[in-house]
Design goal:
28% helix, DNA-binding, 2 domains, Helicase, Ruva Protein, domain 3, 271 residues, 4-stranded antiparallel beta sheet, alpha+beta, N-terminal domain of MutM-like DNA repair proteins
Length: 271
DNA sequence: TGAGTATGTTCAG
DNA sequence: TGAACCTACTCAT
């Protein structure tokens, strides 16, 4: 599930397995071959994540930028390096582990300046220590656009995808179509804090599990959910037609800006 | 075997 | 707004 938590988790894993070592970088599929040659055999100095973007920083300030898009996936392996299966865009081979990347929307070597350009287009990432929620509030607090649009806009908040959008709006009882400027500072602060919690939890679990009380929220705080311990992990995402875990209303779905939007029309009624 | 689906992004019109 | 793109998986035929 490539939302922000996935990328942060990858950064952590890649740091442990590869940073500080010379890494063999190749592109069995061929589409990344030319760039792979630039970093092949260099020491990986650091791995960083900002929103859904992953950066492998090699010696001599060469940076491999990866964006998984909708389908991209890293797999991590130990032991003998086996012949590539399927379309492997990038293969990293370190001293103890090796990793394959398939299906990314971006996998390219960038200069530091180009990396700055990518990051300049991103809003604050709630998972980062240097995140400045004020920057997100400046955009949301004055926008006529609906929250459903703003939360998915990576230049507003980086790292939130369709699952976290649906879930955080539900957890705060917010109508997805509420204009950003009608949210109010207090509710924004609660949403930001909750996103930081949810994403950090996603990093720990390696999965999105939002069905639990709102810790630092305000207003709508769902009661002990029905689904807890039943193997269910979300309130509304992809639960179209199923009963809301809080009020029993059938979960709604509509297409919003070409993406699926899920919500409970009762718990998230317009305010 | 083929259709359908997906957590994302970019570009053309 | 719709199409295109990258891949793998599930389900129906």
């Amino acid at each position: 599930m490539p939302e922000g938590h996935t990328i942060r988790r990858l950064a952590r894993t890649h740091t442990r397995r590869f940073v500080g070592h010379e890494v063999a970088v190749s592109s069995p599929q061929g589409r990344f071959s030319r760039d792979a040659e630039l970093v092949d055999g260099r020491e990986l100095r650091a791995v960083d994540a900002h929103g859904k973007h992953l950066f492998h920083v090699y010696a001599d300030d060469l940076v491999v930028h990866v964006h998984l898009g909708l389908y991209g996936k890293f797999t991590m392996h130990t032991g003998d390096v086996t012949p590539p299966r399927g379309q492997v865009r990038m293969r990293l081979v370190g001293p103890t582990h090796w990793a394959d990347l398939r299906g990314p929307i971006a996998c390219e070597v960038l200069t530091e300046g180009e990396v700055d350009g990518v990051r300049a287009r991103l809003g604050p990432d709630p998972l980062r220590d240097d995140a400045d929620p004020e920057a997100a509030w400046r955009r949301i607090g004055r926008s006529k656009a609906p929250l459903a649009t703003l939360l998915m806009d990576q230049s507003v908040i980086a790292g939130v995808g369709n699952v976290y959008r649906a879930e955080v709006l539900f957890r705060h009882g917010l109508d997805p179509l509420l204009p950003g400027r009608e949210l109010g500072r207090e509710r924004f602060d609660a949403v930001w804090a909750d996103l930081a919690d949810l994403l950090a939890d996603g990093v720990r679990r390696g999965a999105i599990d939002t069905v639990r009380p709102v810790h630092r929220g305000c207003g709508h705080a769902p009661d002990e959910p029905h689904g807890r311990g039943c193997g269910r992990e979300v309130y509304v995402y992809r639960r179209t037609g199923e009963p809301c875990r809080v009020c029993g209303t059938e979960v709604s779905r509509r297409t919003h800006a070409a993406r699926n939007l899920f919500w409970c029309a009762t718990c998230q009624a317009a305010t």
